[in-house]
């Protein structure tokens, strides 16, 4: 026997939880389990799309389309009968329930017939029509519960919810409602009572509805009236999310939330809450738990008095889209005090929804956010109200910006600490989001701003990441699947778990492209099988398109968190693609040197595009693979040092070849081995020409601010141009073998003079004044005490002689070629971008 002295629990199930027999089965299991804990009251919404069907049926009937209205009613009836026949199969109650369903819907059809005769329906009649969905749902659920051997009773909430006559959004008379609950609670305690949600009744007996989230409101009213231990709302999500999961894939449910934070979320459009839903809980101190019907073991979100106790964390980021920003700019100082008041009154008279209103500190400008579908009315209302001021040029013409999004960070506990606003707006600035207006609640419980609609995804993700709600997600598109590309994909695969655990960075390769194909998977490609995926050719696959990377791919990439385009190709003309990426809010990491070695105007325009669009363009690996050559040079320049000379072996490939040649390895054999080891470009001729080293030297020279072109480089190849020009591989290697005697003669002369062959580049910023080349690149003999003489294998080195490092140059030395080290440098650039955006 149930102990009637124990506190009630109130649970509410939404329409999606009852849409199919399988879902109803889950609901019944939850009701049975909760019933074991003490007295239980259940509140239900109309099943599935029933309410929408009834509203549409009302609209059709009002136009005289009785047949269509009847058809819609029949659809709603079929949902109920399908559930009843499946759940009650074998219980002998099916015929009885079918008769009850038919009786209820027979009355509904008569009501709609009357509407069709009158060709109109009022808010009052619509409330009555909608009530049939809730009544049917509660009636059936009570029968379903009884079929499981649990005593249950159907309760029409209209018998205890007393409201005024504001149809469609009635106000509850709490005193009268409490009296009716008190009169019935004793008889409710021994059984599971199943109540209709959403409904009330005026003192003279007319049916009303409670408006948005009305069934949740019914549950919290009942919880307060029964002094319940807890109110649980079972829905299709696992709680209140840290952000819209459609925008932030790694958003997750909050464990706790305060009543006031829930109210704040409701104020800024969170669909899960309505202010009226929270009032009974706040007045009674009863906690609310939001849980997922489909994952009942998940703890869900608890809403109570204290909420999140951690002052170091925020609560949620909301994004209210399809809004309009209405700006009023005052031009005459004596107009300021009354303009703001009149703006608010004008909007109130039109019953317009104002989500946020802000006024500048000097009172000369004010703006409001209204739903976009109300912007025309808002503009007309303000122009009518301020006609005189507009005609006298006391204010500027009212300006409307749309569509915009109202972005809000809710952080009650964190609001008591410093720099919340700074972190929020810094995160937006780092990704180039233009903030149009700013507002903050008086309690510092939330901070809001208005951003352009097209920046919504970027803005929400940036703020979500900045407050460490979750791991920093990075969406990477890799161009090129050769030696470096393959190594990069393997490094991401093997390091992903470690990066996520130790660095809070979730690197997802969402796209891979080569010369002929692009594959795309928004949730991340399986990097253990990416080669198979690239070989697939299934036009029906929505995540795969044939052909080279297109703008459409960038448009898909830009919608993902921290999108980064990684170029590990040696393709020409990529600067055009980079600019398109920057314009779409995509960062670029490149090992491709060519975009930085085009003409000076083009290179500067490329860098300026990255700056103007607030995107990162990381290209450390263009010079030293994974060596910090460019960053070292930038730090020297930033700190005011003057660079007098840069000298180095910029090509690990040529460093390897010259080392092997000095060791006695034949030229052709050394080149073949270098190619097999992945040290060379796809065409080794590119390395032997010295052009690759020249490009690196040019990149560094331009980092010093020197205006120089490739034509200014004095370039000498390692072998004669006649060999390099041979494109056929067999002919090329035959020519290398034929050149071996001459090469060996040169090497012998160097050995006899105690010298070592090295392929070096030299950048002398002051050479132009002396009429000498600024950039010289070529093979030269160096003495045994030269820094480059100590290089082994594919080691590269760069020596910076500066004003501060005059006597002993600053040397950066290490592996300068190879797919693995270059890929590591590329991955380091990707992680650097992610960490910078995360605020570390």
Outline of the structure:
42% of the residues lie in helices and 20% in strands.
What does this structure look like?
The chain has 28 helices and 29 strands. The protein is α/β, with parallel strands linked by helices and 840 residues long. The strands form five sheets. Strands 3-4-2-1-7-9-10-8 form an eight-stranded mixed sheet, sandwiched between helices. The chain has a seven-stranded mixed sheet with strand order 20-19-18-17-21-22-23, sandwiched between helices. It has a six-stranded antiparallel sheet with strand order 12-13-11-14-16-15. Helix 8 runs antiparallel to helix 9 (275-284) and helix 15 runs parallel beside helix 28 (819-838).
Give a topology summary.
Layout: E1 9-13, H1 21-35, E2 40-44, H2 50-62, H3 66-87, H4 94-118, H5 123-147, E3 152-155, H6 174-188, E4 192-196, E5 199-201, E6 207-209, H7 214-225, E7 230-235, E8 256-258, H8 259-267, H9 275-284, E9 288-292, E10 301-304, E11 316-329, H10 336-349, E12 356-359, E13 365-371, H11 375-385, H12 387-391, E14 399-410, H13 420-430, E15 437-440, E16 446-452, H14 456-466, E17 472-479, H15 483-503, E18 505-513, E19 517-520, H16 530-535, E20 544-546, H17 551-557, E21 563-567, H18 574-583, E22 587-590, H19 600-612, E23 617-618, H20 621-624, H21 629-638, E24 643-649, H22 652-662, H23 667-676, H24 684-688, H25 691-703, E25 714-715, H26 721-724, H27 729-752, E26 755-763, E27 775-783, E28 795-802, E29 810-815, H28 819-838
Parallel strand pairs: 1-2, 1-7, 2-4, 3-4, 7-9, 8-10, 17-18, 17-21, 21-22, 22-23, 25-27
Antiparallel strand pairs: 5-6, 9-10, 11-13, 11-14, 12-13, 14-16, 15-16, 18-19, 19-20, 24-26, 24-28, 26-27, 28-29
Helix pairs in contact: 2-3, 2-4, 2-5, 3-4, 3-5, 4-5, 7-9, 8-9, 10-11, 13-14, 15-28, 18-19, 22-23
